[in-house]
Specification:
Structural class: alpha+beta
Radius of gyration: 34 Å
CATH topology of the largest domain: hpI Integrase, Chain A
Largest sheet: 4 strands, antiparallel
Mean pLDDT: 82
Helix content: 40-55%
Number of strands: 9
Order of helices and strands: EEEEHHHHHHHHEEEHHHHHHEEH
Low-confidence stretches: 382-408, 410-422
Distance between the termini: 106 Å
Oligomer: single chain
Number of domains: 3
CATH class of the largest domain: Mainly Alpha
Length: 422
């Protein structure tokens, strides 16, 4: 049953229905907020409710003192107020809540590296991932820089060792997986469009101001869902076709993509060089979907990943690995190492080799030069008729053993058994 909306009568006093009033008392600052609600009869005098609120506030403050000014817990709401318009707001709020829960009572200017090191050690022992700790440290550093309005301000994070996620080798992503994921994202988009069209067809049934308002709200939500599905599909297609980084995708603007000339000018990422890419047919299709969906600007990466995973993307594989797949495809296609470096926007060829790996064709070519030295031959699999498993059989060894071929005997060639005589 939906909750009755509250209408403000006085400060902290709301009318929930025609027969009741609700008094609200809040103590503390985010994230340690204590909120109490108390219902009153509709005929209760306002001065009586206001007196109750004051007595309750004093009682609550004795049990939970206010957060000291200048403390980290007091500075966090100030910082978050300036981040509310960003898609990363929810992530920053969660990351700072972890710091407030441990050192929130300390004044920001009195926090030292040893305090942060102790907190990080506690997190590592509790099994918090290094990636999560790194994100928490980056957000805390951004808080210091933002509140000081100085990018070069010294922070307690400057001289401590922050855990870094272990580097992993690039993972190859099969083309069939990318194609299957795009197909499911397209099916999701088609389903959302069909739902919006079905709902639009019922517009004439809405009678009365309230029904029309509910219809408009539901239709707006469905249209937003269609737009989100279209943008998620377009971003996935562009990342898979071009190898562009998510950070570069966020910074793209309309003048950077020229569909007529089939050219896209991508800004450098991670300190790399700018990239100038020419579009093939598949890239042109991806960029057209991107432009049609107006997928420019920043977006919530966590929501994007959830949509892609809902389309069948494996849990142990990052969407970012589509960039590695582009590097592998270029290397397997025989592209020059320097050209791959320019396409990926790397400043060092060593980084390019980490992304592209070693060409399988080159490995096989080198392996072929070593073949035939010992006369061992190849190992070929064969199916055992008496087992479900495939057994490896050495062809060279079978050639060394003499084989006896038994030809089928005819009835005339078969010797008859002589009967025993007495």
């Amino acid at each position: 049953m939906p909750r009755t909306p509250l209408r403000r009568v006085a400060e902290g006093i709301y009318r929930g229905s025609k027969t009741s009033l609700t008094a609200v008392v809040t103590v503390g600052t985010w994230p340690d907020v204590w909120r109490v609600e108390q219902p009153f009869d509709n005929d209760t005098p306002l001065p009586e409710i206001q007196a109750w609120r004051e007595e309750k506030r004093v009682e609550m403050r004795k049990e939970r003192p206010n957060v000291a000014r200048g403390s980290l817990a007091a500075d966090v709401p100030t910082y978050l107020k300036g981040q509310a318009h960003k898609v990363s707001y929810a992530a920053k709020k969660s990351e700072l809540a972890a710091w407030v829960a441990t050192i929130g009572d300390r004044r920001r200017h009195q926090i030292r590296g040893k305090h942060l090191t102790a907190v990080i050690s506690t997190w590592l022992e509790a099994g918090v991932s290094k990636k999560t700790i790194l994100n928490r440290c980056r957000t805390l550093h951004h808080l210091y820089v933002t509140l000081a309005d100085d990018k070069k301000v010294r922070t307690p994070l400057d001289n401590i060792e922050i855990p870094r996620p272990d580097k992993t080798r690039p993972k190859h992503v099969a083309n069939t997986l990318i194609a299957r994921t795009e197909k499911r994202l397209r099916a999701r988009l088609d389903a959302d469009r069909a739902a919006a069209e079905r709902h639009q067809a019922t517009k004439g049934r809405a009678k009365g101001a309230e029904a029309i308002r509910r219809f408009a709200t539901a239709q707006a939500n469905l249209q937003r869902r269609v737009l989100d599905s279209a943008r998620a599909r377009a971003r996935f297609m562009v990342m898979a076709a071009t190898g562009i980084r998510p950070s570069q995708l966020r910074r793209l603007e309309k003048p950077h993509v020229d569909l007529r000339r089939r050219i896209v000018d991508i800004a450098g990422g991670k300190g790399g060089e700018p990239i100038l890419q020419a579009m093939n047919d598949e890239m042109l299709t991806a960029w057209r979907a991107f432009v049609d969906a107006a997928a420019w600007g920043s977006y919530d990466d966590s929501k994007f990943r959830r949509r892609v995973k809902a389309a069948g993307w494996p849990a142990g594989l990052r969407v970012y690995n589509t960039k590695h797949a582009v590097g592998f495809a270029l290397a397997e296609g025989g592209a020059d190492h320097e050209d791959i470096k320019d396409w990926m926007g790397h400043t060092d060829t060593k980084t390019t080799r980490l992304y592209t790996g070693v060409s399988i064709k080159r490995i096989r070519r080198m392996s072929a030069t070593l073949d035939g030295r010992f006369g061992w031959g190849a190992l070929a699999p064969f199916s055992d008729p008496f087992s479900d498993r495939t057994t490896t059989h050495n062809l060279a060894e079978s050639r060394l053993k003499p084989t006896v071929t038994k030809s089928p005997r005819t009835k005339a060639e078969t010797p008859s058994r002589s009967k025993k005589t007495a």
